[in-house]
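One thing: mind reviewing this one?
=====
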Amino acid sequence: MELNTQVVAFPTEQVTENLSVLAHDLKSPINSIAGLIELLKLELKDTPNQLIRTYLDLIDRSCQHSRELIQRFNNFIELHECDYQMYKERISVHPMVSQVVHLHALQANLKGVELNFCSPLDLLEIWADKVLLTEVLNNLLSNALKFTPEGGKVWVRIEKLGKGVQIIVQDSGIGIGEKELPYIFDKYTRARRNGVRGEKTTGMGLFIVKRVIELHQGNILIKSKVDEGTTVIFSIPMF
């Protein structure tokens, strides 16, 4: 596998240690829950009640997803607080995006939001840091689900655009007001708000997203209307 390493400097703040401790402390209860789930699966492996097994599988997948969230949180700390070493490689776009969509499928189902994924048959490849771009996709899809009420829809599309690849994350959610939209990429943006189910946000997600896209010589834009939804479009040069 061909790799290219690049060190990128980010502003340093004095919150790194506390955030790292928090991420570490979150692992223990999640690991305990995962262990109990495995025990329950063994005890109930012969049960004829398919619904119980289905619920256990859903809880298990939620624990796995929580572990991944903690890992991404650690990646965020490293990206935002210190020098981050980029590892660029040749990436096939469809599998990467498909994996992220799959990880959010359970969350979408639990929230009553229809999640759709559309990708061309072409083999589209880019030269990028897979960890960082995965974080971008996770952030955008998480936001789309967070601000879309029950019964709404979220679409993720991959398109070829000239010599680049364009990824679109669109939702039918509550949208962003005209006054807030110009500040949406600001660090600790004043456009910060809670999700439709009261989910908390740090207001830093899109600041990081924009930085990552720019590091890949890409572009990003957001279109939004209140009560109509939001569309985020970003492009990365092809390999």
